[in-house]
Write a structure and sequence with these properties.
The structure is a homodimer. Chain A is mainly α and about 220 residues long. Chain A has 10 helices and no strands. Chain A has 2 domains: about 55 residues, Arc Repressor Mutant, subunit A; about 140 residues, Orthogonal Bundle (Tetracycline Repressor, domain 2). The structure holds a DNA duplex (30 and 30 nucleotides).
DNA sequence: TAAAAAAGAACGATCGTTCGTTTTATTATC
DNA sequence: GATAATAAAACGAACGATCGTTCTTTTTTA
C-alpha cells in the first residue's frame, strides 16, 4: 500500500504553511494568489489542494499557527517564578514578540495585523481569534491576581480592568511597531513608568466618577 | 458650457466615499467589489470612475478621511485647558474614539484595522499613515511636556518613550474593542490606575538595566 | 503492480476597468 | 422666452485579466 508516511505528510503540510506565511506577510492575505503559494511551496496546485482544501483554510491555518506560536513564546513569562513586576513583565512580553521577527524572516506582528483585519469578515477566523485572546486575557488576570498577592498591585484594583489595560498595551505595541517601526520593548516599558505617578486627590475623585457616567461629547461631522 | 457646480461635485464625491465606507467596513477592503460600491452609491460605474480613478484611490480616500476624522475628534482634548491627568486623558481619548462608532453606523475602529493591514503592501497608504501617526505622537509628546510642567509626570521621565506608551495604550484599545468588543474607555482608564503603583528599589534597578541590554531569548520553533 | 500522490493544463467565475452611447444642464440664437 | 447647439456627466454593457479550483494524466512508492 503506497501511502506516504505521517512524518512526510506533516512535513508537506508544514512546507505549504511556511510558503503561505511567506506570501501572506509579503503581499497581504487577499493579494497573495494561490499560485503565489503554490510556486513558493515548490509543489503543484493539485498537491497543495490535497493538503489544504481552500485558500480560506490556509488563511485560518496561518493565523492560528501564529497565535499558538505566540502563546508558546509568551507562556514561560506568564508562569515565571518569581513573577516580574508590571513594567518588567510588559517589557519581557513585548520583547519576546518583537524578537519573533528575527526568526526565519517571519514577522508575527504583520501576520497579527492581517488576521485582525480578516477576522472582521471571516466568522470562523473571528471566533478562533476571540477565543484565543479571551484565553490570553484570562491568563493576564491570573498574573494581576499574583501581583495583588505580592503587593505590587493594590488590593482595590479591578483584576478584569487591569488585565484589559495590560492587553491594550501589548496589542498597541504590536500595532505601533508594525506601522511606525521605531518602538522597542524598552521604550514601551520605560514610557510606562513615566505614566506611573501617585494619585492626587483630584484624580481619585475623577476615577470614582468615571465608572458611573458615559462621556457625552459632540462628535463633529466628517 | 454645462459644468456641474463645485458643491455638486463635492457632494457626489462624498456620496461615493460614504458608499465606500459602508462597503469597506462591512466586507473588508479587498472583498468589497467596485460593483458593491457602485450599487450602494446609487450611481453608475462610469460616474464613480469619473470621480475616483481606481479602487486604490477609493481605499486611500476612505482611510485618509477616517484618519483626519479621528484627528478632528481628538484635537479638542489635546488642547484642553487645564489638561486632564494621564488616566483622565486616556479615558477621554478612547471614549471619543469609541463614541465615533455610533455616528451613522460607521465604525472608526474597523476602518483603522483594515487600514493597518492594507498599509503593509500599499506603499502610498503606508506613507500617509506613518505621517499621520508620527504627527499624532508628536502631539502626545507635547502633552507629556505639559504634564511635566504641572508636575503630574516626573521630570526624569523620557518624553518620547512616554508618548510611545500612551499611543500604544490608545491603539491597543482600538484593537481590543474591535476584536473582543467588551472593553470601554472606563475599564481601560481604571485598569491603568491598577498598574500605577510606586517603584520598589528592585524595579528602579530593573529600569536602569532595561535600557542598556537587549533581551536574548530562545525562540521556540513553530 | 496497484493505489496513492503529484502534476499542471484548463475552466468557470468574477474582478477592476473601459468605452461607446444616452441623458442632462447650460449657453447662444432668434 | 422658447429653442437649438453643445459639452460635460452619467450610464451600463462588455472586455481582458486573473483568480480559486478542478480534473485528467503522469509519477512515485510500498
Amino acid at each position: 500500500m503506497p501511502k506516504i508516511s505521517d512524518e512526510k505528510r506533516a512535513a508537506r503540510r508544514a512546507q505549504i504553511l511556511a510558503a503561505a506565511w511567506t506570501c501572506f506577510q509579503k503581499e497581504g492575505l487577499h493579494a497573495t494568489t494561490m499560485d503565489d503559494i503554490i510556486r513558493t511551496s515548490g509543489l503543484s496546485a493539485g498537491a497543495v489542494y490535497s493538503y489544504y482544501a481552500s485558500k480560506d483554510e490556509l488563511i485560518l491555518a496561518a493565523v492560528t499557527s501564529s497565535l499558538s506560536g505566540l502563546s508558546a513564546l509568551v507562556e514561560p513569562i506568564l508562569k515565571a517564578e518569581p513573577l516580574p513586576a508590571p513594567d518588567q513583565f510588559v517589557w519581557q512580553v513585548t520583547a519576546t514578540i518583537a524578537g519573533f521577527t528575527a526568526r526565519g524572516g517571519y514577522d508575527l506582528k504583520r501576520i497579527a495585523l492581517l488576521g485582525w483585519s480578516e477576522a472582521q469578515r471571516n466568522e470562523r477566523l473571528r471566533a478562533t481569534m476571540r477565543g484565543f485572546y479571551l484565553a490570553f486575557r484570562s491568563r493576564l488576570e491570573e498574573v494581576v491576581e499574583a501581583w495583588k498577592r505580592s503587593g505590587v498591585v493594590e488590593e482595590a484594583a479591578s483584576v478584569q480592568d487591569t488585565a484589559k489595560a495590560l492587553l491594550s498595551i501589548i496589542l498597541g505595541f504590536v500595532v505601533q511597531a508594525a506601522i511606525l517601526g521605531d518602538v522597542d520593548a524598552g521604550a514601551l516599558a520605560n514610557g510606562l513608568t513615566g505614566l506611573r505617578t501617585p494619585d492626587t486627590p483630584a484624580q481619585k475623585s475623577a476615577q470614582a466618577l468615571r465608572r458611573q457616567s458615559t462621556l457625552k461629547r459632540a462628535v463633529p461631522e466628517l
